[in-house]
Amino acid sequence: MATPQYELSDPPSDAISAIKFAPASLQLLVASWDKNVYLYDTSESGGRLLRTYQHRAPVLDVCFGDHDEDAYTTGLDWDVRRWVPSPLS
Q: pLDDT at position 31, please?
């Protein structure tokens, strides 16, 4: 069985430090050294960028909560943050 591969549109401008898929959808969180967290919809070709969330320093890790609506991020700014991306229109 072939493993799916995703080429992201609008990728981070620096190194990727972590990626996590949502528990119940094809959304993907990406943590980057460019101080941003990226949320992509990978159900479409090219992994469409949905939202970004900025930290004050490089982001080291990301994860979803129990549901796709909650995301948690942490970085070199010593913050652990809860991020609730706004509903998609």
A: 97
